[in-house]
Amino acid sequence: MAAFSILDLVRVTQETDARGALDNARDLAAHAENWGYTRFWVAEHHNMPGIASAATSVVLAHIAAGSSRIRIGAGGIMLPNHAPIVIAEQFGTLERLYPGRIDLGLGRAPGTDQVTVRALRRTLSGTDTFPQDVRELQAYFADLDPGQRVQAVPAAGTHVPLWILGSSTYGAQLAAAYGLPYGFASHFAPDLLMEALSIYRRRFEPSEQLASPYAMVGVNVIAAETDAEAKRLATTQQMSFADLFRGARGLSKPPIDDIETYWSPAERAQARQMLARTVVGSRQTVRDGLARLIEETGADELMIVSDVYDHQQRLRSFEIIGEAAADLRTAVAA
């Protein structure tokens, strides 16, 4: 049976400032570990006023301090934005503070626009050093070699588990070659999901970290007491995508009754393509949708995004999803 985890967007809304978004994420993680979720991840995004997780490792420390068992991690750190030694120092520190609970998912994209890329002091040469940077990062987390002149303090010997994340076949190939777990971002880029999973599983080479392939699939799930209410809650995410297409990166908006009054036909078509891997509905509807996704993909784990505006309704959405997951586990065990 697949594991269930959470990717939280740490949303800043029209009613909640950045501090409120950070505290809401921490509160959700505390609830999630009692609802059966395996991990709680946040992602690195820059120059996005509606997302408060840019300082990802700091955010993770805040979340981890408010929970006790659930694994906490990055989904992901955009490694080309950083020197590997700095990321090793940050996540090695997290592992020392919260041993056995830290994950480090790695992405290759900048996670922002080109103007912000320059502000991050990233080179725009086009040279791809991501594979070498992953290897360098692995070396910093490994046991310290005698005479090693450069070490990431206090990362050495922590063996923080790495994940390769992506939305194309590139990450699948790299994860397979390096023998690392792989997460596909089908919650916003679903087109190559099945091809990427096939490549990853066919080409996987065992490693010290992982003996056999382990695939995580991202999926949007909006749950409520009824299908109609869940459909209404889902308009918050739909509006966010429409705003993204318009170049208007604003705060999260409360749900509306009719999304057709908000977006154009072109925006609707583009959003529906990007949100194709979305399950919206009641506990029964969610259970059936998740069962189909697991059967289709053979996923070892689902990473769930539930982009609901109101915090209490978002908590209830994840609680219902957890109940649906429990239903699936019972059905498999029967």
TrEMBL record:
Annotated coiled-coil segments of the chain: none
SUPFAM superfamilies: Bacterial luciferase-like
GO molecular function: monooxygenase activity; oxidoreductase activity, acting on paired donors, with incorporation or reduction of molecular oxygen
Recorded GO CC terms: cytosol
Superkingdom field: Bacteria
Pfam family, one: Bac_luciferase
Domain Luciferase-like, residue spans: 4-300
This protein's UniProt keywords: Monooxygenase, Oxidoreductase
PANTHER family with a match to the protein in the record: LUCIFERASE-LIKE MONOOXYGENASE
Sequence similarity: To bacterial alkanal monooxygenase alpha and beta chains.
Protein name: Luciferase-like monooxygenase
Lineage: Bacteria, Pseudomonadati, Pseudomonadota, Alphaproteobacteria, Sphingomonadales
